[in-house]
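Electron transfer flavoprotein subunit alpha/FixB family protein
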Amino acid sequence: MKNNICIVIEKQEDLTKNAYNIVSYISGQFQKEYTITVICLGGCKKQEIEKLKRLGIFELIIVELNDVLSCKFQNKSIVDFIENELKKCKSSLAIFMATSNGRMLAARLAIRFSCGLVAECVNIRKGDDKVFIFQRAALSGSVIAEIICVNSSIQMCTVKNFTPPIVYVENNDNCTVNVVKHKLIEESGIEVEEIETIEKKHDNNLEDSRVILGLGSGIKKRELTKRVNYIATKLGVSIGYTRGFVEINGENQSMQIGQSGKIVSPKLYIAFGISGATQHLVGINNSKCIISINQDKDAPIHMYSDYIIIEDTEQIINLMYDIVKKINE
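Predicted structure tokens:
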């Protein structure tokens, strides 16, 4: 009997391209030696079910959640459910998406199984004696580290963006589809004393952001950065940086987007002064719409953009700033 690999993906509105990429890559790499189980949190449309089945998986478990708490995938009852499924399948490897929900789920389950957890992998391959080799970027993306977890019945990881093309099979009648209606339960038993209430200024959770303003090394004036921050705060959107911008300006690396930073999937990504290095493009690959603003007509990012504005970035930022400021006066 084959061993099992379990992939946990999540859905808010639609399944992201990254979810299909992960399932396709793992299935293609390991389905000869392992059965592949996919747990989809948040339900699936009929066409999404068919696409997942055609990725060559063995079992698809669709977890439909009640509306009230449907975005809280890290809820204890979900952790309990996944733990039971991993034990039932006797999984050798559990893979989670490198989102805020995926990281939380993976961390809580790794504690329950007393196993190691490798974060933000860019590749996984099979080693000797049932050991998996996890690859991830290190030293600001300058090297790729290889990590193994030993002395554990199950291995776990979160993965960033797998970029190989998605490969479908013609049909997969052997795939079992199970739909589970799961009711999330409010977590209790934790007593919290409110000490101070601080007004929320600006949400910059990049992984869950619908709109992101991206700043690249073409933004050289500190005043322009301040103006983009003002625009983002007033419009309630997020800000992300390229690695070049972070290194030049000494900005917070937690806001860096790319292979050595965050992988994002907003509905709209506006790139200010970003040339389009490969490691940054990996981070914005799942954006539904990309607008690039750069006076360099040959900037590589233009090839990946839905809309292109070849103008002085400083003038565009100042124009946006004036409009937003006038609206908020």
